[in-house]
Amino acid sequence: MTMKAIKGGTLVDANGVIDDPVVLIEGDKIVKVQSGDTSTPEGAEVIDASGLVLMPGMVDCHVHFSGSAGILRNFQERFEVRLIRAALQQTRQLLDSGFTSVMDTGGLIGFHVRNAVNEGIVEGPRVMSSRRYISVTGGHGDAQSMPLEWVKEGRPFGWGMDGRIADGVDECMRAVREQLREGVDFIKICTSGGGGATIDPAWVPEYTYEELKAMVHIAHSWRRRVMVHCYNPEAIRRSVTAGVDIITHGNMADDASVKLMKENGTYVVPTMAVYHRMVKRSEESGSQISGMAATLFDDIRRLHDAGLTLAVGTDTMGGMMPFGGSALELELYVEGVGVTPMEAIRIGTLNGAKVMGKEETLGTIEPGKLADIIAVGVNPLDDIKSLQEKENIKLVMKGGEVLKNLL
């Protein structure tokens, strides 16, 4: 097995900064990180990234592989066409932008993309998938523009129409077991309204405590985490007391629900980029900006200042949220929320690995971890926006395999 050695100008990860690093890789793992000593083992394949900044591969904990071309066409395009586009194009856009791990938080397309990547059929980031997201009738995961009987049939229309409706404790338990039967990595539940649905506004809590407790119990019995789409304080209270692991969005949290999340060690994945793009689109069209967008940074700052573990989540789905733009979230953490660039890097790497439950193998560049490493031309500690420039991402390695090389 040939050893690889990456020589860089600087190494930046959640542990700090190392000058003149040499990272030794054997197989898919990092075996040594040395500083100053530029010698490499005899016969090692040397990757010269001198003058560049080495970073861990970044993590987006909230995407939806849609396979849509430009706009979200839903079932106007065949499922198979969008699946091919997602597997071959959207995965490449993520890799080229330096994101080597993602969580697809609901959708059949993402589930099949995960399988294609795992089987080596296509090159792509590590994908964790929840397959169908679980929702009450008329809830956020119910494709409300379609006949109810179609949704209950579970027709494979693809992202945005992949909800699994479940009402009552018994049906909720069955819905979770169906996802587990298919081999999902985690369970996704919609516990509040929001996101522009036609029936359920963001302030509506959409599952009872008893229903949530039953679903969490089944998932945890199978050692799977539970992520919930959740906005309002009551939905957060029900979700956290029922034992969910991850809140995504969380914009409307009040002091009591923030305190509850902190006490329970709940991870939170805000999704600022999608609101940022909504604001830009509203400004261009002259339409009204949503109230939730107007208070976005104050809302997320409250979560951050409480000491919650936050991770990058963009709600990338194609359309106005194109794949390959996930690093915008890091800029918004710095420019909007007010964190330091180093803290933003932690949020976009190690914290994402923690949300995935993979902090022992991902998130930093150190011995024993998987060799998910990128090399960038501009130090993000000086300019966090530079991570959004694909030409600045010179090298992308996933598990010791180079998947992008502009050196």
Q: Can you walk me through this structure?
A:
The radius of gyration is 21 Å and the shape is globular. It is 33% helix and 23% strand. It has 2 domains: 94 residues, Roll (Urease, subunit C, domain 1), CATH 2.30.40.10; 269 residues, Alpha-Beta Barrel (TIM Barrel). 53% of the residues are buried. The chain has 407 residues and is α/β, with parallel strands linked by helices. The mean pLDDT is 93.
**Rg over alpha carbons:** 21 Å
Number of helices: 13
Total beta strand runs: 17
- Unreliable residue runs: none
CATH architecture type of the largest domain: Alpha-Beta Barrel
Largest sheet: 8 strands, mixed
Order of helices and strands: EEEEEEHEHEEHEHEHEHEHEHHHHHHEEE
What number of structural domains do the residues give? Answer: 2
Could you give the distance between the termini?
A: 23 Å
Helix content: 25-40%
Structure classification: alpha/beta
- According to CATH, the fold-level topology of the largest domain is TIM Barrel
Structural descriptors:
single chain; 407 residues; alpha/beta; Urease, subunit C, domain 1; TIM Barrel; 2 domains; 8-stranded mixed β-sheet; 4-stranded parallel β-sheet; 13 helices; 17 strands; globular
